């Protein structure tokens, strides 16, 4: 059974990104369908897969990480508007029977992602 998971690592502090709201969208024909929200736990992961089983189908998706709210809560001072606030990550799912792990490595002025396992 396929599934979509994520986790957030705060690379500036060397710790998991706890309490980050993540929205998930399916993209098709120029539109975005909101599929739900998740919040990272103390390990920077979501307690359950973001999508799994029949909810994960081949196509394009977007995870939207509300990083600015997390950085504010961490006391990271920055000029407003922040350099990073809402971070959208778009990716494709070719084989919905596989595990797609899409982590976010975050700092106040940069981020990266990759397909994990």
From TrEMBL:
Enzyme class: hydrolase
Positions of the Transthyretin/hydroxyisourate hydrolase domain: 4-116
Gene3D superfamilies attached to this UniProt entry: Transthyretin/hydroxyisourate hydrolase domain (2.60.40.180)
SUPFAM superfamilies: Transthyretin (synonym: prealbumin)
Entry keyword annotation includes tRNA processing: no
Keyword presence, Kinase: no
An example Gene Ontology molecular-function term: hydroxyisourate hydrolase activity
Catalytic activity as recorded in UniProt: 5-hydroxyisourate + H2O = 5-hydroxy-2-oxo-4-ureido-2,5-dihydro-1H-imidazole-5-carboxylate + H(+)
UniProt KW keywords: Hydrolase, Purine metabolism
EC number in record: 3.5.2.17
A Pfam match: Transthyretin
Signal peptide, first to last residue: none
Physiological role: Catalyzes the hydrolysis of 5-hydroxyisourate (HIU) to 2-oxo-4-hydroxy-4-carboxy-5-ureidoimidazoline (OHCU).
Record's subunit section: Homotetramer.
Family assignment from sequence similarity: Belongs to the transthyretin family. 5-hydroxyisourate hydrolase subfamily.
Protein name: 5-hydroxyisourate hydrolase
Record organism: Vreelandella lionensis
Gene name for this UniProt entry: uraH
């Amino acid at each position: 059974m396929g599934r979509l998971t994520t986790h957030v690592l705060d690379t500036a502090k060397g710790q998991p990104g706890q309490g980050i709201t993540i929205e998930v969208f399916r993209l098709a024909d120029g539109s975005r369908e909101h599929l739900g929200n998740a919040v990272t736990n103390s390990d920077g992961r979501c307690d359950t897969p973001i999508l799994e089983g029949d909810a994960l189908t081949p196509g394009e998706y977007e995870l939207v990480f509300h990083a600015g709210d997390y950085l504010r809560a961490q006391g990271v001072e920055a000029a407003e508007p922040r350099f990073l606030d809402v971070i959208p990550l778009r990716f494709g799912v070719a084989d919905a029977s596989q595990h797609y792990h899409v982590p976010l490595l975050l700092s106040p002025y940069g981020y990266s992602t990759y397909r994990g396992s």
